[in-house]
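Reviewer comment 2.1 asked that we show a complete input and output for one of the modelled complexes. We chose the SN-glycerol-3-phosphate case, as it is the one discussed in the main text.
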Amino acid sequence: MKIFLDTANLDELKKAASWGIVDGVTTNPSLIAKEGVAIEEQIARICDIIDGDISAEVVATEAKAMVEEGTKLAKIHKNIVVKLPLTRDGIQACSALSKEGIRTNVTLCFSPAQALLAAKAGAYIVSPFVGRLDDIAQLGMELIESICTIYGNYGYQTQVLAASLRSPLHVAQAAEIGADIGTLPFKTLDMMFNHPLTDKGLEIFLKDYAKAFAEKK
Ligand code: G3P
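Response of the prediction step:
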């Protein structure tokens, strides 16, 4: 499973990039707003840090304007994937941009039927939100499972990106199901490293080593 970072924060991206495990980045208008820098500028900076798919989301809500905005965003860098909401206009814009060879990420997907529409429109990526379904007491991970089954049944090439992943358990479950990509906030990625037995084991190894060589001196 590819691991994307769900952030527009450059320090987080640089730190995660140093670990050599980040395949791409997803952003959304909320994440860009948090950084307080114009989207074109912030996305260009992100492209300088991570060499992989970088999703940049439109804020227009009407298909024609989405296509214009998406076309501009796509010109920022060859790695840009234009993110569009799963609305009627978003799907219309997705079809149009896909026909032009511009890669798209259809976001705010909350049902298998919506995901089918994204695939039909030629989306490069579909983003079902796991955590936000869990928030309303629905099993978000079941959505990932259904979409993977549907896409597998027909051989749709659209990649399933499990979004709104809030914990290492979410990440592991998405990988077990076979999601193509998981996008996660820096905090979740950082938590994936942690295991008390790793810390304990390392402590013992180093103590044993130090003791053995200290005795020989
Ligand atoms: O970027 C979309 C998604 O990953 C947001 O996650 O935690 O705000 O629901 P969250």
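Strands lie at 2-6, 24-26, 53-57, 80-85, 104-109, 125-128, 159-162, 181-184. We note this here for comparison with the apo prediction described in Section 3.2.
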